[in-house]
Structures are given as C-alpha cells and as structure tokens.
From TrEMBL:
GO terms for molecular function: oxidoreductase activity. Residues 16-335 form the Enoyl reductase (ER) domain. Gene3D superfamilies: Medium-chain alcohol dehydrogenases, catalytic domain (3.90.180.10), NAD(P)-binding Rossmann-like Domain (3.40.50.720). CDD domains: PGDH (cd05288). The keyword Oxidoreductase applies. InterPro entries: ADH-like_C (IPR013149), ADH_N_2 (IPR041694), ER (IPR020843), GroES-like_sf (IPR011032), MDR_fam (IPR045010), NAD(P)-bd_dom_sf (IPR036291). PANTHER family: PROSTAGLANDIN REDUCTASE, PROSTAGLANDIN REDUCTASE 1. SMART domains: PKS_ER. This is NADP-dependent oxidoreductase. Its EC number is 1.-.-.-.
C-alpha cells in the first residue's frame, strides 16, 4: 500500500468562476484506521455541479468548505484496511471520501456494492446519486403523465439524460436542451428524445417553442439563466417544475442586471397554478429501493442508456471541474483515480 495520500484541497474560496489557483494538490501520510474505522483506496471520483455550492460561504443545505479542506465528492473505492466487522479488505464500496487517494470512514457512509456484472463507476452515475436525483425529482414533483411534454435542461448531463428517458418510459414527450449540435444529435439518435434544442442557437426561444407546440407540462430545471427565460412563457396551466440546479448562476457574484421580474413570475405562477419545488436527492431517500429496482430493470432491458466522460488522474480533477461548470463535459463526468 502507498504511504502518501494525495489530496485536492480548496486553497482559496472562489470568487465567481473557480480558477486553478483556488485548488491545490497536497500530500499527507496515508491515515491508519482506528477501532471501528475503515481505510478505503479511492478508485473513482464523481464530479458534480453541487460541489461549487459547497465552495461558497453562503448558507445552504450542507456545511460550506473552508480553505484547506479536502473537496467533497462521491467515490467508489476498495477497502484496504479495516477495524470494522462490517467491512474487510477487498470490499468495493460506495462512499464519500472526496478528492483524495485514501479516505478514512467509520463505515456509516459506506455501502458495499456488487460489481460482478456492473462496472463499478456506474454507481456514481446512472445507478447512483445522479440517477436517483432524476428519478425522484421527476416522479415525485414532475409527475409526468402520458402525452404530456417534459422539457429538461442540461439534457446530456448525468441527471438530465436520465430525466428525459424516464419521461419517455412514462409515455410523455421528452424535449432536451443541450449545448451544441453533437449533443443534440446524441439526444435524438442515442437517447430517443422527441426533440432537441441547442441553447447556443441565437433563436433558441423560437426553436423551443417549435419543439413544444402544446406548451410545457413539466420542466426539470438544472440551469436557470437564458434557458429559464425561454421556458417560462411556454409553461402550461398546472405545470410542475422540479428545481434541481441552477448551474448558470453558481458563479454569480451579484444580482443579475435588469428589472425585478419576481412579481411577474409570481403573477404567472398564480394564474397558471404552477408548482415549483426545489429539492435535494436526500429528501426522497425512502425511494432508494424503488429506484434501484426500476433502474436496474430499465438498464437490463436497454430502456435507459448512458454516456460517461472520464478524466484520468486526481490532479486533473480541478480542470475537469472548471470545465463542468462551463458545460464542456459530455455525459457523466468521472475521474479515474486508481
């Protein structure tokens, strides 16, 4: 076993868009497990937009990182030493070790996973937190019905791609919004969406209206910004909006320019009887067994497809993360650590 633990820490709190200098790679001794503890070697690291929120000092649903902290993140790893009777060396576990080569755990945040027939990194994507976010947000809040139109932003991302495919399984029309012609082709040809709209198109609002001739019944919000501005006029009476993310605003340092549009939104929400609910995947933790059952079945049947964007090496995580916030990734963004 290695004696050096490489870690990526938050060197300074980002102001606006994160910069490479906001991150640092440091080396520490590999920790040794005490009574009840487990030492896990990180094999795969998940990169997700929510991590930008954790780098902010603003009050949120989880504790903010402080300069010097290892950056948070979901991981798949191998148990290499254990003083916990529930785990033994060689076990492959889903955990939350963050951006480091080795992590210590008391076992409460670890879950043994079966990798005999499933690539282990899939538990960080379609079979993990992103997949469950799509499943629980769409079905609990969006509640799509056959024949309705479901629109999802960031539609080729780890969450958005699953949202659209579940909408299709439920008999709805799936319209995806993504950046660039290649991503739009992927939505149509690989994932089976009914329509795809390029948010980089100068006429994007008109293209979205053409793709949604009967308006929008469910809008799964991952982005905000100009995409939201195009969606809002098309929302139908009794439309539902699962609010999952606002990646267009994560680097904002001040309020957006222009008039206050909140009163107009409130009026439309009232007259159209719109439901908007923000959520965190843990709100629906009781749905985990149903998610795992349904998603496993859909994968076996080929009804859910997925794409992974893999980066090699922990030291490349900061650059990949900055690219994620710019929409450079194509599919679920993962770092192969070991």
């Amino acid at each position: 076993m290695m004696t050096v633990n490489r870690q990526v820490i938050m060197a300074s709190r980002p102001v606006g868009e994160p910069k490479p200098s906001d991150f640092a790679v440091v080396e520490k001794p590999v920790p040794q497990p005490g009574p009840g503890q487990v030492l896990v070697k990180t094999l795969w690291l998940s990169l997700d937009p929510y991590m930008r929120g954790r780098m902010s000092a603003a009050k949120s649903y989880a504790r903010s990182l402080e300069p010097g902290d290892v950056i948070v993140g979901g991981t798949v790893g191998e148990v290499v030493a254990s003083q916990n009777g529930s785990f033994r060396p060689g076990d492959i576990v889903l955990g939350y070790a963050g951006w480091q080569a080795y992590g210590l755990s008391d076992g409460s945040d670890l879950r043994k996973i079966d990798v005999s027939s499933i690539p282990m990194q899939r538990y960080l994507g379609v079979l993990g937190m992103p997949g469950m976010t799509a499943y629980t947000g769409l079905l609990n809040i969006g509640q799509p019905k056959a024949g309705e139109t479901v629109v999802v932003a960031a539609a080729t991302g780890a969450v958005g791609a699953v949202v659209g495919q579940i909408a299709k399984i439920r008999g709805a029309r799936a319209v995806g919004i993504a950046g660039g012609a290649e991503k739009c082709r992927f939505l149509l040809e690989e994932l089976g969406f009914d329509a795809a709209v390029d948010h980089r198109d100068p006429d994007m609002p008109a293209r979205l209206k053409e793709a949604c001739p009967n308006g929008i019944d469910v809008y799964f919000e991952n982005v905000g910004g100009a995409v939201w501005n195009a969606v809002f006029p098309l929302l139908n009476d009794f439309s539902r909006i699962p609010l999952c993310g606002l990646i267009a605003h994560y680097n904002d340092t001040e309020a957006p320019p222009g008039p206050d549009r909140l009163p107009g939104f409130m009026r439309q929400a009232l007259t159209k009887r719109i439901t908007l609910r923000g959520f965190i995947v843990s709100d629906f933790s009781a749905d985990a067994p149903a998610f795992e059952r349904d998603m496993s079945q859909w994968l076996r049947e080929g009804r859910i497809r997925y794409r992974e964007d893999i980066v090699e090496g922990l030291e490349n995580a900061p650059e990949a993360f900055i690219g994620l916030l710019r929409g450079r990734n194509f599919g679920k963004l993962l770092v192969k650590v070991a």
